[in-house]
Amino acid sequence: MNDSSMVVVREVRIMSIVRVVFWLCLSLFAVGGVGLLALYVVGAAAGGLGGFRGFMTSLGLSGLWLNPLTFVPIFSIVAGVGSAVAAAAGALVGLLYNALSPLVGGVEIVSRER
Predict the structure, then answer these.
(1) Percent of residues, the chain, with pLDDT higher than 90
(2) Alpha helices (H) in the chain, listed in sequence order
């Protein structure tokens, strides 16, 4: 008795891929930003950083002239652009999959029912 079912994915929706990749990357940037903020607050409270410039130097960004008021907008712009680039790359992969799917037969997904 065979309790498995097979589904073949022959086409993916490009906008679905773009939305998922964009919001996933933006979420990861947000987690990273909150982590950097928490790291700065803890380091500042411990007194071991030497201000914001000391914090940026500890991250290896000593050549950049940033202050806390310009860091947040620049980080937000980098996060948005990085997420858009990742979403565009995901769209290209989706387009490539849709183009090659008729030639190779798509992806077979097998699930077992319990």
Answers:
(1) 39
(2) 14-46, 51-58, 68-104
Q: Which two tokens stand for residue 86?
A: 């990742």
Entry field: residues in the chain: 114
Q: Is the pTM of this model over 0.85?
A: no
Each residue of 59-98: pLDDT tens digit? 777 776 667 777 788 889 999 999 999 999 999 999 999 9
Token look-up 């996060």 returns 79
Q: What are phi and psi of 113, to 5 degrees?
A: -90, 140
- Quote the mean pLDDT of the chain: 84
Phi/psi for 4 (5° steps) reads -110, 150
Using the 8-state DSSP alphabet, how is residue 108 labeled? E
| Burial readout 56-75 (b: 16 or more C-beta within 10 A, e: otherwise) | beeeeeeeeeeeeeebeeeb
